[in-house]
Design a protein that fits this description.
This protein has six helices and two strands; from the N terminus they run ααααββαα. It starts with a helix and ends with a helix. It has a two-stranded antiparallel ribbon with strand order 1-2. It is mainly α and 103 residues long.
Length: 103
């Protein structure tokens, strides 16, 4: 349930039923290329050290250029990878608290 229609419905309901609602929309250029592994590993969602090590290995696994050359990576997530949206959501956890100044 993560399509445009669902987002519009969630925004409508937030504005309709809550006294105060915030809607944040943005396009973060180069997000997947520059996401900090620390933002993921410091999340309260991931407490298992083995999972943290796996995430670090994913980030450092490298990439292959169009010419077929191996490239080292030390940041970002595999763009187009099935795990990248999940890692992005984990990195964003707590954003509402930060924006509201509650932390």
């Amino acid at each position: 349930m993560r399509n445009t229609k669902d987002a519009i419905e969630a925004i409508f309901n937030a504005l309709r039923f809550k006294e105060e609602a915030w809607i944040l929309e943005g396009d973060l250029k180069g997000f997947f290329d520059n996401i900090k592994t620390e933002a993921i590993n410091e999340s309260q969602v991931i407490l298992d050290n083995e999972i943290k090590a796996t995430i670090n290995n994913l980030v450092k696994s490298g990439a292959i250029s169009y010419e077929g050359n191996e490239l080292e990576t030390d940041k970002g997530t595999p763009q187009g990878g099935v795990i990248s949206p999940l890692l992005a959501n984990i990195a964003f956890m707590g954003m509402e608290t930060m924006i509201m100044g509650l932390e």
